[in-house]
């Protein structure tokens, strides 16, 4: 590699390195930020929302019955029916469809929810004809994976959109009412009994499937590392000062909290800040928010790589011959934002073919980008750098929550496990191993023999929403 290019790449690698001191400081800062969020009712940019969910218990695995779940959270909308068998198992039918781009922005809440209601209707017609004749309304758990100010198990106003959605008239409105209205208009016999974030769903569904007698572990976190990232955990009531007495029913000892950790450190007190992160933020619909998520999750990894490559190009270090041969332009899939998916990065990351020929084919196919070997080496190095930082940063909230909840489990000698879902944690090469490695460095259980396990809770959010609906009155 020529020495100028090498120096530029080394500098980027340096800026993206997350070392032990950083991890430990950031974990402490995360713990402080959790406390601030639990104190203040009105969400502010400075701290994580830490949203009380009105889910007051973790499932035991004995819950039973047929429930519907509808899941809106990223690129797809999913409707499922879940039959909880009461023995840690369930059966599930589901239909999934992409949300049309035109309903994600420049549209209205009514159009979006009318579309979702139609999908629920179609699902029931296809899978549950028998319910048409019944008088009872089926309970539906609505997984809505955006920050919501929840005021009851099935009430919550949208705080702001994330992950590319932008329908301004929906902000501050109760999304359950909007959805229920559209279901009623279509005469669909369904009652939205619970509103759940996907992380809450993942926590509940993993806790339902987990049999501690077999795994010797308690499920303490539900986490998503997919298009976005976030986590939920069970907090004791005396640690949630912002909850008022009248909001709590008698006998409640604690509540599941949706942290919205994507918004950890929006003011960048500790998070790494490179000019690339800054540029990426400016390209998003929620500038200045969810800055942790923008360093970690699937929606952003490809864009970070692209921004870095364009910067190296602007310095005259890569793609120069290509630029000339095209008469002064770069392929549009490289020149335009958001064209590079994290799935592509996962292939580039582990290519070990001679001269990285495999990467060459992938880049041609996905970006229409011809490359030479030196460019491919740079692309692979930057891909690994961006994704390693993401995985190591992902350890911070997990380690912090383990630290925080360990006193809840003082009299219990079981291990701790996280239920995780999302394309990045499930499929990105070595992502899980790197998270666990960084957690071991932070060592949140210092002085105890308990271990930490990471479990994939596939499709957790649907089952979890059904579990939420199952406890609703
Ligand atoms: C975003 C949303 C959050 C969700 C996460 C994972 O961070 O704000 O509610 O849980 O993505 O889907």
From TrEMBL:
Alphabetized Pfam families for the sequence: Hexokinase_1, Hexokinase_2
Molecular function GO terms recorded: ATP binding; D-glucose binding; fructokinase activity; glucokinase activity
One GO term of the biological process aspect: glycolytic process
Record's keyword terms, sorted: ATP-binding, Glycolysis, Kinase, Nucleotide-binding, Transferase
Pathway(s) served: Carbohydrate degradation; glycolysis; D-glyceraldehyde 3-phosphate and glycerone phosphate from D-glucose: step 1/4
InterPro entries the UniProt entry points to: ATPase_NBD, Hexokinase, Hexokinase_BS, Hexokinase_C, Hexokinase_N
The Hexokinase C-terminal domain, residue ranges: 221-470
Positions of the Hexokinase N-terminal domain: 9-208
Classification via SUPFAM superfamilies: Actin-like ATPase domain (SSF53067)
Gene Ontology cellular component terms for the protein in this record: cytosol; mitochondrion
EC number in record: 2.7.1.-
PANTHER family: GLUCOKINASE-1-RELATED (PTHR19443:SF30), HEXOKINASE (PTHR19443)
Record-stated family: Belongs to the hexokinase family.
Designated name of the protein: Phosphotransferase
Species of origin: [Candida] railenensis
Lineage: Eukaryota, Fungi, Dikarya, Ascomycota, Saccharomycotina
